[in-house]
Specification:
The protein is α/β, with parallel strands linked by helices and 328 residues long. It is 30% helix and 26% strand. The strands form 3 sheets. Strands 3, 4, 5, 6, 7, 14 and 15 form a 7-stranded mixed β-sheet that branches. A 6-stranded parallel β-sheet has the order 10-9-8-11-12-13, with helices on both faces. Strands 1-2 form a two-stranded antiparallel sheet. Helix 3 (125-138) crosses helix 4 and helix 3 packs across helix 10.
Amino acid sequence: MRALQITELGGPDSLRPAEVPEPDGSQMVTPGEGVVVDVRAAAVSFPDVLQSRGLYQYKPDMPFVPGAEVAGLVRSAPDGAGISPGDRVAAFTGIGGMAEVAVAPTFMTFPLPAALDFAQGAALILNYHTAYFALKLRGRLREGERVLVHGAAGGVGTAALQVAKGLGASTIAVVSSSEKEQVAHEAGADDAVRADGPWREQVVERTGGVDVVLDPVGGDRFTDSLRSLREDGRVVVVGFTAGSIPEVKVNRLLLRNTGVIGAGWGGYVMSKPELNREIGQALDRMIADGVVRPVIGARFSLERGADAMRLIDERAATGKVVLEIGAD
């Protein structure tokens, strides 16, 4: 089958087309028999970029096929999986997704609602499950609260804007350009501020302080994120795409009665199948209500996988970057 393969840790340019054997249901990152999916779309994400340089926490043996998320048609599924051959699904594979055939755990394979196409399905799990986990389960977001989202035009950011809306919150996007501001508004942001301006002052002036900050960026914005909180506010940390990991002076938390919360979705949910189903059902309701619609910023063919990864590496991507594979 056609696939993309990493044979050396040289960044996006090391991602090359290859012919590799098709996997079967026993070939997964997690133990157990999996769902075999004929892939129609595969997502490209920041962790894939890190993995191409050997910088991600999971370091598979080379050569390997990257790609953690796919959407497509079920080829085969274990008994009791609740899905059948031919069903449209979105699935989290962990690895091996950038190929014509991939395998995913049963508890990470979800029916794909008719309202979403395959590209949107490939954009659904990593970002939207992370956003729900971070905002609702870790950040304890309540209806009527205000959420500030960093990196709001990216994959996690656009997902967080929509999930926050689905949870009854209002949203403020932090973005770096006019183009990204437009993307954030189209994703549902109520307001937006520029990262290169006095964004904290603007946020506090407009709102008096926010209840939750979702931060997938890290870096030098972190202190101002804390200062933008109102009493009992929470900063939820989901990543460090800026490249540097910030530190916090805990006296700031004590004096303002605020908190910093980590939200490591993958490591938490992999051992909790019921939680995955709960999150999937919550997102299905938001999809049915028209609130969740994954933003696809760019679509590439499988052979242009390196270009897709380079777009993310250069911080030029908006929404989700997706590889389209096979017939629709």
